[in-house]
């Protein structure tokens, strides 16, 4: 199994050295990104790495909080996070981070310790893959599940800040999947049907109305609730579109958490 590893952090020298060694010695697929919330969020959506290595350097509360976008993936076991830091940055990270579980590795980095941990992670994900491939056939009572499960919201918006903001507002009450384009939304819909879609009205290539029109032609999705996300400047255009496409309504960005949840409750109950 070849691990996909995301390497980021303010300490570019350590990040560069680690990238080179893991690629050369272990043959891992390495992806890199800038150490900010938007970049990490986008690369996690696009690449789905199994390991995230954060190389800390001269951190502040704000720079440490940027990595909180990894919280859900870490919590669900979708990735393992390793933080490389000196004693000062390690204490700062532990104080301000909301991540539930990380592995710390002190500088200067022991390649032996790092490789040992990476081997363990490889084995863990390989075993998990084997388990998924050999699962027993099971009966799923969908009626029982639907009565008690959390509702699933698909959010489609090309603005990373908006995706993060809406996800943070809703994840207390709903399962939230954020995607950045109409094409990404249709790719997701091939695998799973959400309970509602929050759809940005203005997007490049394929805008909200185009996505909704295509959605209404798809078998099984013609009745899926959709609400447009729109800025104040486009509000009048959206209202004109409502009578033609018949979505369940619209939400003006940026919306307060209470307003956003209330809108969804109006549709889903």
| CA-atom Rg in angstroms | 21 Å
Element-by-element helix/strand order: EHEHEHHEHEHHEHEHEHEHEH
Question: What is the CATH level 1 assignment of the largest domain?
Answer: Alpha Beta
Report the biggest beta sheet as strand number plus sense, adding barrel if it closes: 5 strands, parallel
Strand content: 15-25%
Per CATH, the architecture of the largest domain is 3-Layer(aba) Sandwich
State the low-pLDDT regions, or none.
none
Structural class: alpha/beta
Gap between N and C termini: 44 Å
The CATH topology of the largest domain is what?
Rossmann fold
Gross geometry: elongated
How many beta-strand runs? 10
Quaternary structure: single chain
Number of helices: 12
Q: How many domains make up the coordinates?
A: 2
Q: Helix amount, in percent?
A: 40-55%
CATH superfamily of the largest domain: Response regulator
Protein model, in words:
Helix content is 47%, strand content 18%. The longest helix is centred in the middle third of the chain and has 23 residues. The relative contact order is 0.09. The protein has 269 residues and is α/β, with parallel strands linked by helices. A five-stranded parallel β-sheet has the order 2-1-3-4-5, sandwiched between helices. A five-stranded parallel β-sheet has the order 7-6-8-9-10, sandwiched between helices. It folds into two domains: 130 residues, 3-Layer(aba) Sandwich (Rossmann fold), CATH 3.40.50.2300; 127 residues, Rossmann fold, CATH 3.40.50. Helix 11 links the parallel strand 9 and strand 10. The chain is built from twelve helices and ten strands.
